[in-house]
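Q: Fold this one first, please.
A: Sequence and structure below.
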Amino acid sequence: MTVQFLMTGNCRQAMACYIALMKSLPASVRVEVVDLYELPPDDARRGFDSPTILVDGRDLFGESPRTDLSVPPGSRDYRDGSLTVPSIRMAISRRLDAGRPPPLKESAPLAANGRKTGL
């Protein structure tokens, strides 16, 4: 899992979002912090506002980037409460579950000789 935290230096919500993100992840997961203003002008990530969490290149909460990259990144509004530790954990869990193959169907148990028992 690749996690990127997109932000701008003047974003009031960035620090709170970053802290919530770090509390939501296992210590083994690395987070790349990306300043949107330091990206090349044609980088598609400039289409997101600050702060944004990308997991494997996709916005954690399903937002799409602006296609007009000439518009500078602004502040993203999270008034819906999605920046809490539980909501970030739930969104990450949903994302990971969506990428997993469906569980295998259980087959009949095998006897000690390796043959199906017929149960």
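Q: Good. Now the second chain.
A: Here it is, same layout.
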Amino acid sequence: MNLTQQIRKVNKIQIKKRFNFPESLLLEGKKHHSEGNPKKSLEKFLEYIKIQPLDFNTHHQIGLLYLQNGNVEEAILHFE
């Protein structure tokens, strides 16, 4: 494991300790999105939405990510 991987692992642990679990998924999703990793961002947002299904802002973000990937049908489900 290189230094970058070690730092990421420590960051994940710190996020989970500092915040309660559902919000840590949301923060990780936002972090991945800002780093230009939409696939990983989408994974975290989908995990989060399973726990917080009424978070309409996150559903909107998921819809946008699906649109960016050309998956219009999935996007519409999250925009409704």
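Q: Anything worth noting on the second one?
A: Residues 26-80 form a domain with the Serine Threonine Protein Phosphatase 5, Tetratricopeptide repeat fold (CATH 1.25.40.10).
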